[in-house]
UniProtKB/TrEMBL annotation:
Disordered: annotated segments: 111-132
Name of this protein: CKLF3 protein
Pfam families xref list: MARVEL
Gene Ontology cellular component list: membrane
PANTHER family: CKLF-LIKE MARVEL TRANSMEMBRANE DOMAIN-CONTAINING PROTEIN 3 (PTHR22776:SF3), MARVEL-CONTAINING POTENTIAL LIPID RAFT-ASSOCIATED PROTEIN (PTHR22776)
Primary gene name: Cmtm3
InterPro entries in UniProt: Marvel (IPR008253), MARVEL-CKLF_proteins (IPR050578)
Domain MARVEL, chain residue ranges per copy: 1-106
Amino acid sequence: VLSFVIFICYIASLAASFMMAPLLEFLLALFLFFAYASKLNEKFKGAHWPLADFLRCVTAAIIYFAISIAAVSKYNDGASKAAGVFGFAATIVFAVDFYITFNDLVTFLKQGSSDSPEGGKTEDEDSDSDSD
């Protein structure tokens, strides 16, 4: 929703050249939302869904931060300033989402490495339990 609001602000502003980044982010977020809602992540196991979401969050935070600085500092109209302020808010939201998604990504990657026959125990864990 925030990406769509920023997109609308950029359309109405003098900084209309920045409108493509929020539009693409909105469409990508919408796709991932519907993919998770319709359980496509469970049907297509070959795709690394947490990694895709992680990369989306990282790139969105960086891009929103950069275009928000440019919109606030370079343009003087109200819509550009509003888009910049919403962009800074989106940067914070995507940074928080980045943190949450990073934890999910680590869990996802640990699941892939725990497919060993002993249930994922390493030699270090086995030697620690023997010493007790």
